[in-house]
Amino acid sequence: MNRTDRLYALVEELRAVAPRPRSARWLAARFEVSVRTVERDISALQQSGTPVYAEPGRTGGYCLDKQHTLPPVNFTPSEAVAMAVGLHGLAGSPFHGAAAAALRKLVAAMHADDVARARQIADRVRLVDGPVTAEMPRLVADALSVRRVLRIRYADKTGAGSVREIEPLAFVGMPTYWYLVAYCRLRRSMRVFRTDRITSVAVTAEVPPPRELRPGDLDVPGDKMSALSLV
Fold this sequence. Notes:
Elements: H1 3-17, H2 24-31, H3 35-47, E1 52-55, E2 61-64, H4 77-88, H5 96-109, H6 112-122, E3 125-128, H7 138-141, H8 143-146, E4 150-155, E5 161-173, E6 178-184, E7 189-194, E8 198-203, E9 225-227
Parallel strand pairs: 3-5
Antiparallel strand pairs: 1-2, 3-9, 4-5, 4-8, 5-6, 6-7
Helix pairs in contact: 2-3, 4-5, 4-6
């Protein structure tokens, strides 16, 4: 069991018996680690804000305040990235620190494979000049997480429509619009699609080949863009 899974399991063990305590020795035997490792894990949970308390005495140990914890929730990689985008919009506000702490707890509770996937998606998101208020269709929003070729109907700035198969690679968010960067099979090159001009979306069964997004593929000065972080 890795440390992240053990921290989660410790909380669930203490939640199950709350308000009764579990001793460090009992927990060490339960998770097949040393007492010192349990003490370090408990300290890490306390520092992250988890309400775990030590009760002194012969029958004491560690206990969890059930009233101040939430039941376990499974977050998807896309949900974690969505929270990171929301956090970006709170920059400079009095709530940014608290939101960042909440995101750290969320990531710590996720499965390691989901965290890795969330970081892969986050690496494909760039934000330009502050928070983005525009919305986009759900199937477009899921373009990076589904990892499939999309068939879209797209209207250009003159209103002329076309049907294209695209391989989604990245999102760029600006204050008024979201853009989807993708390899367009119709044009046989990288293209940037304004998401509000995508009038229909169909997810195909085809998995696109690996493609690297180069800095020159985004026509935005590097100093104007912010990378998305899961903190």
